[in-house]
Amino acid sequence: MNAPVPATAVWDTARIQQDFPILSREVHGKPLVYLDSAATTQRPVSVVEAVRKFDLTHNANVHRGVHLLSQEATQAYEGAREKVRRFLNAASVREILFVRGTTEAINLVSNSFGTSKIGAGDEIVVSSLEHHSNIVPWQMLAERTGAVLRVIPMSDSGDLDQEAYRELLNARTRLVALTHISNALGTVNPVREMIAAAHEHEIPVLVDGAQAVAHTAVDVRELDCDFYAFSGHKLYGPTGIGVLYGREALLEAMPPWQGGGDMIASVSFSGTTYNELPYKFEAGTPNISGAVGLGAAVDYVEALGLEAIAAHEADLLDYLVAQLSKIDCVRLIGEPAVRGGAVSFLIGDVHPHDIGTILDCEGIAIRAGHHCAQPIMERLGIPATARASVGVYNTKADIDSLVAPLPQIAEMFAR
Fold it and tell me: What is the dihedral of CA 156, 160, 164, 168, to 10 degrees?
């Protein structure tokens, strides 16, 4: 197995691709070109092997056993928590909760913090750029409590209206829930400044970081956010594992969301005493091997270097936008001031599903649809987009492969 390329090395995508054996396969008889990392990143061998090693040699339940395997499993699981703490620069492992993914993390905050802190007439501020996972839990909370959802508008370019955002913040606002990077348009929001604006009114902020952690360094203390959520499978890790960072004082004050094993200190029929952080929010047997895989994924991206990754991907996105802009039939959807991860586009009146299907026949994997961001599509007056998204393993040759068939697709449907 090859070791990851160190951050100090010259970026060598061909070398990095060797860490991802799936990229060597063929699709419909064509070499695979994978441009769908915003949906899920591929996993390097080091992550796959970390999970395999755990399953083959250390598999046992955590926190509960005195035997060696249980102690080894606990050490591996808690070791992964410390890796995530370091990765996010959280103050303590008590602030790192393992969950199934970003969706569960947001639902946890909605059902715990939201239920205990938000009531009738209170306001929750979200943005026009949110994934459904950062809209629906707040709608459900509002329906239960009588709270009101307020929405930050966006421009045609895909940037949030910062003046309108500030005007939404008031004495009734109880929470701001905001995406770091839009999964549909690639808009990078100025989250540090938006958090600071909310904190001027003593309003806590939850950041959906699902699309950010693989593309840029995230320091939760520098951002000064109150909650930060992400998923392992967007970070070259396994599915079914994710993280909720929460400011310790907030987590301490929040009631548990789910009840069961490991989230208790003691149980009797007269009452239950809850466990300390972070276990108060981790009921039941966790995804232990998933956490181990996530820890290995953190190791992998840190070895490559987040600054080097950001520079590589910025170069790819600039090239992708430039190449798409040369084709008369192609319309870019969203031209944000700062872009990360993904580019959405249309070809004339061709439905994005047709674009995606034809490209798939050429071995090119992109995403086509509303990207679980239907309010964005409604705002822009379109049903869906074709979306290309990049990762550490992509090259300009991948982009050339994507762009080459697009004029022919337009011509095919024009006939």
Answer: 130
Strands 33-34 and 364-365: parallel
Amino acid identity for residue 314 in this structure: A
Task: Confirm if 329 and 367 have CB atoms less than 8 A apart.
Answer: no
> How many CB atoms within 10 Å of residue 288?
23
**Hey, which bits of 47-114 come out as E strands?**
96-99
The one-letter amino acid at 403: V
Amino acid type, 143: E
**pLDDT, mean of residues 242-264:** 96
The verdict on domain 13-43+305-414 having CATH code 3.90.1150.10 is: yes
Cβ neighbourhood burial of 83 (10 Å; 0-12, 13-18, 19+):
buried
Q: Are 130 and 211 in contact (CB under 8 A)?
A: no
CATH 3.90.1150.10 residue spans of the chain: 13-43+305-414
Is 90 exceeded by the pLDDT of residue 2? no
How many distinct helices (H) and strands (E) make up the chain? 16, 17
- Other beta carbons less than 10 A from residue 381's beta carbon: 7
Nearest alpha-carbon partner for 399 in 410, 407, 388, 409: 388
Q: Would the pTM count as exceeding 0.85?
A: yes
Kindly report, as residue ranges, where domains of CATH 3.40.640.10 are found in the chain: 49-302
pLDDT tens by residue, 106-119 = 999 999 999 999 99
Q: Rounded CA gap, 32 and 52, in Å?
A: 25
Q: What is the pLDDT of residues 260-299, one digit of tens each?
A: 989 999 999 999 999 999 999 999 999 999 999 999 999 9
210 SS3 class: coil
3 pLDDT above the threshold of 50: no
- Is the domain 49-302 a CATH 3.40.640.10 member? yes
pLDDT tens digit sequence for 138-165: 999 999 999 999 999 999 999 999 999 9
Positions annotated as catalytic residues are: 372
Alpha-carbon torsion, ordered 331, 336, 340, 346, to 10 deg: -10
At 9, the pLDDT band (50, 70, 90 cuts) reads: low
Structure tokens at 381: 């007056």
